[in-house]
Design a protein that fits this description.
This is Protease. Residues 469-680 form the Peptidase S9 prolyl oligopeptidase catalytic domain. One of its GO terms (biological process) is proteolysis. Residues 6-410 form the Peptidase S9A N-terminal domain. This protein is of the alpha+beta class and 684 residues long. It folds into three domains: 14-68 and 429-679, Rossmann fold; 74-134, no CATH class; 135-280, Methylamine Dehydrogenase, Chain H, CATH 2.130.10.120. 18% of the residues lie in helices and 35% in strands. It contains twelve helices and 41 strands. It has an eight-stranded mixed beta sheet with strand order 32-33-35-34-36-37-39-41, with helices on both faces. The protein is globular and about 65 Å long. The two termini are 29 Å apart. 45% of the residues are buried.
């Protein structure tokens, strides 16, 4: 194949008609995953991309070595207390995957660990490297120790399709039991007495819809304890921190229903906290004689309520609704509550001690992200939390409740002389077309000349927030004169529930116009050339802005991009489609939704115009955004648009998250960053 001639799609087009609109899809044949011609086409695309980027190999290798050189490859997590043990994970130089371990507890302070030196009495629970063997892909879906600490339930995936095989290991003998259950979903929960494990399975649309109970040692078929027949809902199950209740949640994008079961009576029946009511979302935790219920009934930004265990449908406000504060989650402990919230675009923590005044934990930086993390014990006077910013590496603290003191336990090491003082982070505000102020988070190395080339990241769906975060790989851009910015566009949750509502359904285009407004705001004082980047639903954003304002971007990176949105949401047989109708609308049955989605869906709107260079990265086994979406999009760009080049790179043995091993992931990121740098002429 000539290096200047990409592969061409040569199949019979498909025709579809909806609401009187007939559309020809020239590349629909690419959906046939098992067709050898499809595989050959993707492999030819990979060969073309490899040729087109061969000159970047030295830069890619340099960036990989920088990422590797800044990473403490032999490292450990901070131990977390659960019962009679401290649990932690560690990594070893040269190995792709982590190793899960524990040591017996002695006192309340976590043991001091030295990288590369296992603690005396260390017990290895799971070694991901041994489990992975020679498989090119490996992932763990669940790893859960029974309440008494004697058994481990774990599940593994060797293809990236997110279907896991569940196994059980005796932590007393190290023996893996004969019980083996294929095809399960993420997560699961132990019964309180450790006699049974509850797990979920998906239907043909990849929707977790059934909960099963497995009794250890039983050869009988596992009974279904709950089945959700409404295609808009998915389910999950967990054990409350108090270990008193199994909590089974059924959720759609806009509605919730929660059931509970005495954890020590695994053969019993689940009971409903409050029956589902369209538009009412709620989550439940347990504390002593009450449930804590976080809900949005008459409270757009959510309210915290309590409910008696013996009458859980009666809710009494604990923290009333506030227009300026979005309540995200509640963690219940024996003598206090911790509420995770969002205000002014930043996250925070509010402590509600029993018998004392509530208060919030203060943090010094102008931009940061904080959340509870690793709090397994119900009876404790300490709160474990994770903290990071755009210049501060991920940090683990214990907050001592009696003294109101933050105790730094660990900050992720960044080797090679990294100093946070060498970098600056800023908050900017762009003005959208309708006058709305859009927050922007920025980081740049001090002394970098401005305007600087800028990598602008965006997502903007599902109320997911892209909070300020640290990245070792990003330093390879910043140290070469780049700025990095996050556009906190509507459709995410950064500014509260209304921020999400203003970027979904028939207001989805706000997500795209917000991103363009941010790019225009940055140009001049802040930014020279702007490279846009986004993944999954953020890949939809990339495709939309490429059509909307291609002149604003020097290049675009779209990772596992949801760019064939209309065709996917029209097909209820595809995984997750019906669930997604509450997010995007139902174009199959509603002509107005069809017309609106067709007006912005990236694949539908490629036009004869000059587009910037585009790199689309996808995975062959992705079960969330199929590989054929970016494959079709790149093919249509080549056929219709001008400019480019338009490149497609498919990981043939990976899923939605890309390659699984850490070194493989570093190589992948180094490839992407080298392509970004090349777009602005940086060659080393």
């Amino acid at each position: 194949m000539s290096s200047d001639m990409p592969p061409a799609a040569k199949r019979v087009p498909a025709e579809r008609t909806h609401h009187g609109d007939t559309v020809i899809d020239e590349y629909a044949w690419l959906i046939k995953k098992d067709d050898p011609d499809t595989v050959a086409y993707l492999e030819a695309e990979n060969a073309y991309t490899n040729e087109a980027t061969a000159h970047l190999k030295p830069l890619q290798d340099s960036i990989f070595q920088e990422i590797k050189g800044r990473t403490l490859e032999t490292d450990l997590s901070v131990p977390t207390r659960k019962g009679a043990w401290w649990y932690y994970s560690r990594t070893e130089e040269g190995k792709q995957y982590g190793i899960q371990c524990r040591v017996a507890a002695d006192g309340d302070d976590p043991p001091v660990l030295t990288p590369g030196e296992p603690l005396p009495g260390e017990q290895i629970l799971l070694d991901g490297n041994e489990l992975a063997g020679d498989s090119p892909f490996f992932a763990i879906g669940t790893s859960s120790v029974s309440p008494d600490g004697t058994m481990l339930a774990y599940s593994t995936d060797f293809s990236g399709d997110e279907r896991f095989t569940l196994r059980f290991k005796s932590l007393s003998t190290g023996e893996v039991l004969g019980d083996e259950i294929p095809g399960i979903f993420y997560g699961g929960a132990w019964a309180g007495d450790g006699s049974a494990f509850f797990y979920t399975m998906v239907d043909e649309a990849w929707r977790p819809n059934r909960v099963f109970r497995h009794t250890l040692g039983s050869a009988d078929p596992d009974p279904v304890v709950f089945q959700e027949d409404d295609e808009r809902f998915w389910i999950g199950i967990g054990l409350s921190r108090s270990e008193r209740f199994l909590v089974l949640g059924a959720h759609s994008k806009i509605t919730s229903e929660v059931r509970v079961l005495d954890a020590n009576n695994p053969l019993g029946e689940f009971t409903v906290i409050r029956p589902r009511e369209t538009g009412v979302e709620y989550h439940v935790d347990h504390q002593n004689d009450r449930f804590l219920v976080l809900h949005n009934q008459g409270a757009a930004n959510f309210e915290l309520a309590s409910a008696p265990v013996d009458d859980p449908a009666v809710w009494t406000a604990v923290i009333p609704h506030r227009e300026d504060t979005r309540l995200l989650d509640v963690d219940a402990f024996q003598s206090h509550l911790v509420v995770h919230f969002r205000r002014d675009g930043l996250t925070g923590l509010r402590i509600l001690p029993e018998g004392a005044e509530p208060y919030e934990i203060e943090f010094p930086e102008p931009l940061y992200d904080v959340a509870p993390s690793g709090n397994s014990e119900f009876v404790t006077s300490r709160l474990r939390l994770g903290y990071t910013s755009m210049v501060t590496p991920p940090s683990v603290y214990d907050f001592d409740l009696p003294s109101h003191t933050l105790i730094l336990l660990k900050r992720r090491p960044v080797l090679g002389g990294y100093d946070p003082a060498d970098y600056e982070q800023f908050r900017e505000w762009a003005t959208a077309e309708d006058g709305t102020k859009i927050p922007i988070s920025l980081v740049i190395r001090k002394g970098t000349p401005r305007p600087a080339p800028t990598l602008l990241y965006g997502y903007g769906s599902y109320e997911n927030s892209i909070d300020p975060y640290f990245s070792v790989a990003r330093l390879s851009l910043l140290d070469r004169g780049f700025a990095f910015a996050v556009a906190h566009v509507r459709g995410g949750g950064e500014m509260g529930r209304h921020w999400y509502e203003d970027g979904k359904l028939n207001r989805k285009k706000n997500t795209f116009t917000d991103f363009v407004a941010v790019a225009r705001h940055l140009k001049g004082e802040w930014s020279g050339p702007i490279i846009a980047r986004g993944g999954s639903a953020g890949g939809l954003l990339m495709g939309a802005v490429a059509n909307l304002a291609p002149e604003e971007f020097t290049a675009i990176v779209a990772e596992v991009p949801f760019v064939d949105a209309l065709n996917t949401i029209l097909d209820p047989s595809l995984p997750l489609t019906v669930i997604e109708w509450d997010e995007w609308g139902d174009p199959l049955h509603n002509a107005d939704v069809y017309a609106y989605m067709k007006s912005y869906s990236p694949y539908e709107n490629v036009r004869d115009g000059v587009y910037p260079p585009i790199l689309a990265i996808t995975s062959f086994n992705d079960t969330r955004v199929f590989y054929h979406e970016p494959a079709k999009w790149i093919a249509r760009l080549r056929a219709v648009a001008r400019g480019g080049p338009f490149l497609l790179k498919t990981e043939m043995g990976a899923g939605h998250g890309g390659r699984s091993g850490r070194y493989d992931a570093w190589h992948e990121e180094a490839f992407t960053l080298s392509w970004i740098l090349d777009r602005v002429g940086v060659a080393q």
